[in-house]
Amino acid sequence: MTSADTPDPDPATLRPRLPSPLREIDDDRFARHGVRLLLKRDDLIHPELIGNKWRKLVPNIEAAAGRALITFGGAYSNHLRATAAAGRLLGLRTVGVVRGQELADRPLNPSLARCAADGMRLHFVDRATYRRKAEPETLEAVLRTAGAGDAYVVPEGGSNTAAVRGCQALGEEMRGHADVVALACGTGGTLAGLAAGLAPQQRALGIPVLRGGFLTADIQALQERAFGARRGTWSLDDRFHFGGYARTTPELDAFAEDFERRHGLPVERLYVAKLLYGLAVLAAEGAFPRGTTVAAVVTGRPFPDA
Length: 306
What we know:
Rossmann fold, 6-stranded mixed sheet
């Protein structure tokens, strides 16, 4: 399919709620240390393109100029789900390259089933190929075997120059509201943009949800491509991944359930729970001076079938 065969979508169809709401939370785990906690409810931007997915995808949809979208993710990727939903809402063809050839012979899990129901064509590749997906020859072969044609390529997690610039608006929305703005990080694109949009006296804090300690270099590279240099004041704390992506523990689940009971907020486990847990630990450790206002960016919420 060529761009001439594809409808010219209008991203305004996605009807965002911007700026997203900012809510103060009364939580003694923070208050006893003199820390004020705010929640930046990016999960309320759009009912299907949740939080940073909207901020990262819409600039890429605009750049695609009506072409089909092909992107990458694991079996439980929120990014794949958001891309599939955008395709359905805008009438765009979408292809999802899924890590794990062995998954092709199994029933689809609820996340991938939702992608398929939204019209996304799923193409499974082995893990070795997936690791090399950024290499030009490998990418060309994947595009060919997936039948993607001249599709616009959105990287894993949606993190590229367009996405980083799109997330800069998140930082701009937070100017004057908090001393520290924190969020959970997967590929780092949201933090790269957030930090660039904050005021000079503010800092961004990232809580990686993957093991490995590799994100610092990735985020700096994203900023250099988007802005020409490292931007803003930002740092990472790698202690709160709970074993890696899509992994939780009874301790994390108990924390999330307690937070839900206290504040009436459904807590998404893969990202948001790890962020909030990490911030509670940091507050207890005295990492934030008394009088600090910390804003936690809620980048997702539980899907009904997740």
